[in-house]
Amino acid sequence: MSHSMAADVRPHAHFAHAPLLALVIGYLMLQPLSTDLYLASLPGLASGFGVPASTVQLTLSLFVAGFGGAQLVIGPLSDRFGRRPVVIAGLVLYVFASALCALSPSIRMLIAARFLQALGCCAAVIMARAIVRDAWAPAHGARVVARASSWLSLAPLIGPIVGSYLQVNAGWRAAFVALGMVSALALAVTVMWLPETNLHRDRRATEISGLMANYRLVLGSRDFWAHALPGALSYGAIFSFISGSSVVLIKVLQVPTEIFGYCFSFGVSGYMGGTLLCRRLLPRIGMRRAFKLGSGLALATGALFLALAAAGVAHWALVLAAMFLTMGAHGINFPVAQSGAVTPFPQQAGTAAGVMGALYMAIAFLVGTVVGATHNGTLYPLALISCTLGMLIFLAVRLIPGTEPAA
């Protein structure tokens, strides 16, 4: 590693003793693992519980809804009480909820347990975002997130493959047993090694007046919207594939369940490529130009996907190519959006991360619902959604200009 790259990931001196980057990566990984590890089980859950696919989709959609809503509470709590107690409580809840998922006797119980699991997962992810703002210089935030995201991409690469084999060999419950074991390990490491990074706690953060003041500050910031809105739309674009690819590939295009994980992982490898490209782009062209490049790729991919689907092309390779490029665009967009949205708020980093995350999940919930409702046995609805989101990302980046963070 070069000296400059090492400097990009070195936290402030008083946190140098702690493995913060590894912890941040672990917390962020929990979200894709929570969705991707059981994607191959979605068709099987429908037949196993004797319910329609739209009901099974609620295990994903309500996870997203719970994750999104909780961020509005968890962010301010961490601004008031600190990052460490909030993430420990969240991981304890996640371990408990994973056990409930694995033991669920009905689809209703599974949906409820998934909602609880989302609350615990939310605490880990929001704390990861806030810790980056706490522990690294603002100018390095995007590069730290890009570096973490390169490792983070291993979760959606490996998760679907492992999940496919778990589904084929042990059934859907095995995925939630695995999630419980991963979260228990994360909890143990956190208790042993995570220091408190919030050195500027806001005692008014959880008071109504303080909470409203912080929300007004975040929501009134042009820089926040310039990064959070395109980032949320970009997440919506990849979520269309997360929620729709298993049904399209397995049910429509007849891809075997045990092969689905490899197909999904190939698509997700685009995200890793995007983050690696982002790390090279940021020191050369800056955040705004990198954002424009990523949003342009998202639009071009969605438009091409729609054109080919409308022309009657129905092949698994088209879905994988569109997913690969959409994920690649998000790999460029996400580090810029993540860092740029929280950088202006050193004392309200948890609140800003929470609002941004709630926006991400609101759009993901909407996208997941639309994907499930519009599925008609063809590729066209997924392609239309992908193109629409690509256009919105492209416009948002150009119509809401932001500023580069100062060192």
UniProtKB/TrEMBL annotation:
Biological processes annotated in GO: xenobiotic detoxification by transmembrane export across the plasma membrane
Gene Ontology CC entries for this record: plasma membrane
Topology in the lipid bilayer: Multi-pass membrane protein
Membrane-crossing residue ranges in chain numbering: 12-30, 50-74, 86-105, 111-132, 144-166, 172-194, 232-253, 259-278, 290-310, 349-373, 379-400
Span of domain Major facilitator superfamily (MFS) profile: 20-404
The UniProt record lists the keyword Transmembrane: yes
Record CDD domains: MFS_MdfA_MDR_like
Record Gene3D superfamilies: Multidrug resistance protein D
GO MF annotation, one: xenobiotic transmembrane transporter activity
Domain of life where this protein originates: Bacteria
NCBIfam families, A to Z: efflux_Bcr_CflA
UniProt similarity note: Belongs to the major facilitator superfamily. Bcr/CmlA family.
Name used for this protein in its record: Bcr/CflA family efflux transporter
Protein's organism: Noviherbaspirillum galbum
